[in-house]
Amino acid sequence: VAHVRAERDILVEADHQWVVKMYYSFQDPINLYLIMEFLPGGDMMTLLMKKDTLSEDSTQFYITETALAIDSIHKLGFIHRDIKPDNLLLDAKGHLKLSDFGLCTGLKKSHRTDFYRDLSQAKPSDFIITSSPMDSKRRAESWKKNRRALAYSTVGTPDYIAPEVFMQTGYGPACDWWSLGVIMYEMLIGYPPFCSENPQDTYTKVMNWRDTLVFPAEVPISEEAKDTIIK
């Protein structure tokens, strides 16, 4: 219930062109109801599943709009903490809006969750990759096959989460920019940079990202795009 109330409070404050509009809310003794703007364009996850990859021009358009959306909520004093394609919605004209503020928190708070508790005391060297490496085609096929199931699972996917969030050592707005870089990689390559056959291996790759972030030669992208992702 707390995360739903948090989302309602943030949507009231974040009345902005880059954020899904909430028209009004009401509640009964059990439930809180949010009446939200309808966006007929679907979400970025569905678009990527249909297209596999986007051109650099299309990627630039969507990443720019997402960056403006992230900046707008940071200026209001919030960190989203859950930036991923599922939460990037498209209006009738194809413009992007940010949704799902259930995990959002204030910039001055260090939020801890049960989901990351087992990793809070871990060090990058504690993680060992257990699955065998896959080429880019197999990784894309595996990712696409499992993507929607991950989106609607109770645990979700760790692919877009910054290392400092896993470590629970305190984090700031940079964790949202990390997620944006992961999404840009996925748009251009066809899967997130740290995707694996199981969540534990994804954790491992994220925590050791300097060694595990690679750009497959068989999916060429410009040096400018690579530089933007790394930054």
From TrEMBL:
Pfam families: Pkinase
Phylogenetic placement of the source organism: Eukaryota, Metazoa, Ecdysozoa, Arthropoda, Hexapoda
EC number: 2.7.11.1
Uppermost EC category: transferase
Keyword Ribonucleoprotein on entry: no
This protein's GO CC annotations: cytoplasm
UniProt keyword annotations, A-Z: ATP-binding, Cytoplasm, Kinase, Nucleotide-binding, Phosphoprotein, Serine/threonine-protein kinase, Transferase
Chief place where the protein resides: cytoplasm
Subcellular location per the Swiss-Prot or TrEMBL entry: Cytoplasm
Tree of life domain: Eukaryota
UniProt domain Protein kinase: residue ranges: 1-231
GO biological process, one term: intracellular signal transduction
Family: Belongs to the protein kinase superfamily. AGC Ser/Thr protein kinase family.
The name this protein goes by in its record: non-specific serine/threonine protein kinase
Family annotation (PROSITE patterns): PROTEIN_KINASE_DOM, PROTEIN_KINASE_ST
SMART domains according to UniProt: S_TKc
Reactions performed catalytically: L-seryl-[protein] + ATP = O-phospho-L-seryl-[protein] + ADP + H(+); L-threonyl-[protein] + ATP = O-phospho-L-threonyl-[protein] + ADP + H(+)
Keyword Transmembrane helix part of the UniProt annotation: no
Species this chain originates from: Diabrotica virgifera virgifera
GO MF annotation terms: ATP binding; protein serine/threonine kinase activity
